[in-house]
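Hi,

I'm pasting everything inline rather than attaching a file, because the server keeps stripping attachments. The sequence lines come first, and each chain or strand is labelled.
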Amino acid sequence: MKILVATQKPFSAAAVAGIKEIVEGAGHEFAALEKYADASELVAAVADADALIIRSDKVTAEVLDAAKNLKIVVRAGAGYDNVDLAAATAHKVVVMNTPGQNSNAVAELAVAMMIFMARTQFTPATGSEVQGKRLGIQAFGNVGRLVGAKAKALGMEILALDPFLTPEQIEAGGAKPVFNLDELYASSDYVSIHIPALPSTIKSIGYDLITKMPKGATLVNTARKEVIDEEGLMKALEERPDLKYVTDVMPDNYETLREKFGMRVFATPKKMGAQTAEANMNAGLAAARQICDFFATGNTRFQVNK
Ligand code: 3PG
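And the predicted assembly:
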């Protein structure tokens, strides 16, 4: 079987070497398409691939149409909103993710971003400390729980909202359960977002929620830019000069936000939450192992388009 690693934002060389070793060790053929500039390159490269490992690369219906031999796509990471699941299912292609494998990297970045904003983006202006502040975690999954644990060690008070968990499960993760979004936002000096981009969550965080935050609050987004209603965010920042926004996923209106609000907003130029040597290795190798196991035994444990 030919297993193609297609990554616009490549894994580390060590992770690629590890993937190659697993693929070839299982008797498959390894191929790589890295730093490609245009989607047409992916369309051409998948023509004879049996399996595909991707990161945030877009697997559209066009890509799936071109991939006549494709049986499985593994998104080396958590969020699979970049894969057209309906088209994949129609093509009988199994789609998996590698949950948890890059969570620590994203959680460390979320904590770093809080401190970066609290300390005025590392300028000499007087900042504040996160100790003693309240952190609201929106979705207490793999990343959210790690953010909570790290922030607790910094002396923060942790609140969490997760519709899929019981209050007891949230408490067991070290956080105080909160039962609705309004309460989470109204009670938190920092809110860290960890929800996926779904039809129900896209543009779900806007003016009404953001303006519920207490004086001097900061919204931290290491999830997806799509979950923010950017117009609502702009209006909230205009009306509330005390609020701040920091994100690992550059908003479409970032230039305007920076012009209007300067240091109150910050976005990384390229999504970097999972861009650590460790996360590349964990997610990349997990993806390769899941594909080899799928071919060897039919294991579909991490399938997301069942
Ligand atoms: C994820 O969903 O796992 C993260 O957003 C990481 O995305 P990346 O692999 O494109 O860095």
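Residues 9, 55-56, 77-79, 102, 271, 273-275 surround 3-phosphoglyceric acid (CB under 6 Å).

If the labels don't parse on your end, tell me and I'll reformat.
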